[in-house]
């Protein structure tokens, strides 16, 4: 431009002088503009890298949670399965009809268990599955095991983690029946309170015979851990001893 302008328009010599005088300023402005573009580009790529790293971390945490939840859920089955098989073995000699019934019930229970994953399940569905579990236990314990299940205002819109109740009820049977030959009632109560569903499981309890010889075991701790992993809240499982009853209460958010 320095040489073209004089040839095309000699009268623009003044404008040419202006261009020559402003060249350092325009050069500095161009460098500044390029510098800002470079800084913005670096910041943008760094933010993209951070977002990708955060996404990978969240995905890894999710996979770890799912793996731990699956591990906790899978550990619930062997203990119950071994007890059931031992009971079936004993019944095959004394009560073959009861043994066949228990085999059928056990297969139905396990079929329903295999279909479940870590996704929420309707509470009413969980209660029906729990009733099947209790029917199997009733074959083991006979008339000694009595159940009382009451669910107030529970519809199909109430969701809970799958198989969250079985370890609690298994604990109740363990503490309620193992130290007595009398009839024992396992009570289960469900009700909705605001944005949560409250589920309580109660069983007769004698601290002198049941504690400290037996602890709360893996079941209760696994429930606490699962609820913490799923809802990131503590205190969703509480236990209390009242009127010779041991009561375990779950507070499950409906989110």
UniProtKB/TrEMBL annotation:
<keyword id="KW-0175">Coiled coil</keyword>
<dbReference type="Pfam" id="PF06580">
    <property type="entry name" value="His_kinase"/>
</dbReference>
<keyword id="KW-0812">Transmembrane</keyword>
<keyword id="KW-1133">Transmembrane helix</keyword>
<keyword id="KW-0472">Membrane</keyword>
<dbReference type="InterPro" id="IPR050640">
    <property type="entry name" value="Bact_2-comp_sensor_kinase"/>
</dbReference>
<protein>
    <submittedName>
        <fullName>Sensor histidine kinase</fullName>
        <ecNumber>2.7.13.3</ecNumber>
    </submittedName>
</protein>
<dbReference type="InterPro" id="IPR036890">
    <property type="entry name" value="HATPase_C_sf"/>
</dbReference>
<feature type="coiled-coil region">
    <location>
        <begin position="46"/>
        <end position="75"/>
    </location>
</feature>
<keyword id="KW-0808">Transferase</keyword>
<dbReference type="InterPro" id="IPR010559">
    <property type="entry name" value="Sig_transdc_His_kin_internal"/>
</dbReference>
<dbReference type="GO" id="GO:0004673">
    <property type="term" value="F:protein histidine kinase activity"/>
</dbReference>
<keyword id="KW-0418">Kinase</keyword>
<feature type="transmembrane region" description="Helical">
    <location>
        <begin position="25"/>
        <end position="45"/>
    </location>
</feature>
<feature type="domain" description="Signal transduction histidine kinase internal region">
    <location>
        <begin position="67"/>
        <end position="145"/>
    </location>
</feature>
């Amino acid at each position: 431009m320095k040489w073209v302008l004089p040839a095309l328009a000699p009268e623009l010599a003044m404008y040419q002088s202006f261009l020559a005088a402003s060249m350092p300023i325009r050069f500095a402005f161009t460098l500044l503009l390029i510098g800002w573009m470079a800084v913005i580009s670096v910041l943008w790529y760094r933010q993209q890298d951070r977002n990708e790293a955060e996404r990978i971390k969240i995905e890894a945490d999710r996979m770890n949670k799912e793996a731990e939840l699956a591990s906790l859920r899978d550990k619930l089955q062997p203990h119950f399965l071994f007890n059931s098989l031992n009971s079936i073995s004993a019944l095959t000699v004394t009560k073959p009809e009861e043994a066949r019934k228990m085999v059928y019930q056990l297969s139905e229970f396990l079929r329903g268990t295999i279909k479940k994953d870590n996704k929420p399940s309707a509470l009413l569905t969980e209660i029906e599955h729990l009733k099947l579990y209790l029917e199997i236990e009733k074959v083991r314990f006979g008339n000694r095991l009595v159940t009382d299940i009451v669910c107030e205002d529970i519809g199909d819109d109430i969701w809970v983690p799958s198989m969250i109740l079985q370890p609690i009820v298994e604990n109740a049977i363990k503490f309620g029946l193992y130290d007595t030959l009398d009839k024992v009632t396992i009570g289960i109560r469900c009700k909705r309170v605001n944005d949560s569903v409250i589920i309580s499981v109660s069983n007769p309890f004698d601290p002198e015979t049941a504690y400290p010889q037996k602890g709360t075991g893996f079941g209760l701790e696994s429930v606490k851990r699962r609820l913490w992993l799923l809802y990131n809240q503590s205190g969703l499982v509480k236990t209390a001893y009242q009127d010779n009853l041991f009561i375990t209460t779950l507070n499950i958010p409906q989110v």
